[in-house]
Amino acid sequence: MKSFFDKTMQSVHEALQSVDMDGYDISMQDALKMVEFLRNQLLGLRAFFIEKKLLKFKKK
């Protein structure tokens, strides 16, 4: 079963494949860097929420 992040990465990858690169000054390298950045942001956000839940759980 694919995780949320795997699905997100796949969606972004498919979206990048379907983008018409003509007229855009963006290389695949730059696109991959942006995807990696977004992925790290999502993972960071996920870690933050998990930590928050754990702290809330600890207080009880």
Could you explain how this protein is built, in words?
The protein has helices spanning 4-18, 28-59. The chain has a domain at 26-60. α1 (4-18) packs antiparallel against α2 (28-59). The chain is 78% helix and 0% strand. The mean pLDDT is 78. The chain is mainly α and 60 residues long. It is built from two helices and no strands.
Q: Brief overview, please?
A:
With 60 residues, this protein is mostly helical. It is 78% helix and 0% strand. Helix 1 packs antiparallel against helix 2 (28-59).
What is the mean predicted local confidence, pLDDT? 78
Kindly state the number of beta strands.
Answer: 0
Runs in which pLDDT lies below 50 for 5 or more consecutive residues are none
Number of helices: 2
* Content-based structural category: mainly alpha
The helix content is over 70%
Biggest β-sheet: count, sense, barrel? none
In sequence order, what are the helices and strands, one letter per element?
HH
Instruction: Give the termini separation.
Output: 33 Å
User: Based on CA inertia axes, which overall geometry fits?
Assistant: elongated
Layout of secondary structure:
Blueprint: H1 4-18, H2 28-59
Helix pairs in contact: 1-2
What features would you highlight for this structure?
elongated, 60 residues, 2 helices
